[in-house]
Specification:
Elements lengths: L7 E3 L11 H6 L5 H8 L4 E6 L7 H7 L1 E7 L2 H4 L6 E4 L11 E6 L9 H13 L1 E10 L11 E5 L2 E12 L2 E10 L2 E9 L4 H10 L2 E6 L6 E6 L2
Parallel strand pairs: 2-3, 2-5, 3-4, 5-6
Antiparallel strand pairs: 1-10, 6-12, 7-8, 8-9, 9-10, 11-12
Length: 227
């Protein structure tokens, strides 16, 4: 698939428009996302995952008892999803005509560099959540763009954030490398950092409000519709 301006990925296999390697995402293990979601809104429940990738979280959520609908714009990513109904669509253009108990927007997608796209994503969250439902959002934590370079283990490999560069208008260009014994990938993408106030304002403009922060570092947030 053609990659967007400002987004680029290198390495073996297919890539998504935002520079993600499909093969790399197949290797990623699930972390604590299912437990965070279950603590905020336990199963059984209907759950819409926006930007599901290869289903790293979708499958474990289904195993917990959620009825998962998984959305991604990459058919190659969706082909790897198990245990969930899949929908091929960009997030900002999604219109399923039904609501869910939980809408899940992860992978820092709320930090889209284009404020108009970000607001369309949040509006999709609002339109697809039940009036008494929960929108769970992952946001960048403090120091995400300043504590660079940094390295974290992933399975039998490592991820390295090697640069976060100011490219103007409040946007950062981030470069990440992924090293495994048998493969190496890179990804360059763009992000718009948001203060807590800016983040909460963006939610209110989309008809949502922050109900509570789910983790002590403030990176996981439960929001509710403004009714």
């Amino acid at each position: 698939m053609q990659q967007r301006p400002g987004y680029h990925g290198t390495g073996p296999g297919e890539f998504t428009p935002d520079g993600c390697s499909v093969e790399f995402y197949r290797r990623l293990p699930v972390r604590d996302e299912p437990q965070i979601i279950a603590a905020a809104s336990p199963p059984p429940a209907t759950l819409l995952e926006l930007g599901c990738g290869t289903g790293r979280v979708s499958g474990p959520l289904a195993e917990l008892g959620y009825r998962v609908t998984a959305v991604d714009e990459s058919p190659e990513m969706l082909a790897a999803v198990e245990g969930a109904e899949t929908v091929l669509s960009s997030i900002e253009e999604l219109a399923l005509g039904k609501a869910f108990d939980i809408v899940f927007l992860s992978s820092f997608l709320v930090h889209n560099p284009d404020p108009a796209v970000r607001q369309r994503m949040l509006s999709v969250c609002r339109r697809h959540v039940e009036p008494d439902g929960t929108v769970i959002i992952q946001r960048e934590g403090a120091g995400w763009h300043t504590k660079v370079p940094r390295q974290n283990p992933i399975a039998d490999g490592f991820s390295r954030v090697t640069a976060s560069t100011d490219v103007g208008d409040g946007v950062r260009e981030v470069h990440v490398e992924y090293d495994f014994p048998d493969a190496h990938w890179t990804q360059t993408f763009r992000s718009r950092p948001l203060t807590v106030e800016q983040f909460e304002t963006a939610l209110r403009e989309a008809g949502l409000f922050v109900e509570r922060y789910l983790t002590s570092d403030g990176t996981w947030v439960a929001a509710s519709p403004i009714n």
